[in-house]
Task: structure prediction
Amino acid sequence: MSRKNKDRKVREEALREARRITPGKLFRLLLKSLLFALVVAVLFTIWAVNQWPGYDQWWLQLALMVGVYVLAYRFLMSEFRPKAPSNKR
Result:
């Protein structure tokens, strides 16, 4: 088998393994999601306590939530991304 085919098979297997849903992955996703919700709640609390302008506008709150989610997406979904294959021969 050529080196190219071996590399392709390794990538496919890593992708298949990363997509497999296990209880451990779901538990880590739950913990990360709770951490995300805590961060957003702390940001809203700081925003409201300091009475910065716009804290009572729903669209600004939505923009803050979406912004934090976009920044945290890679961290939240890292369990379902394939690991980089090692180059051991």
Notes: Residues 3-80 form one domain. The mean pLDDT is 81. The CA atoms of residues 5 and 11 lie 10 Å apart.
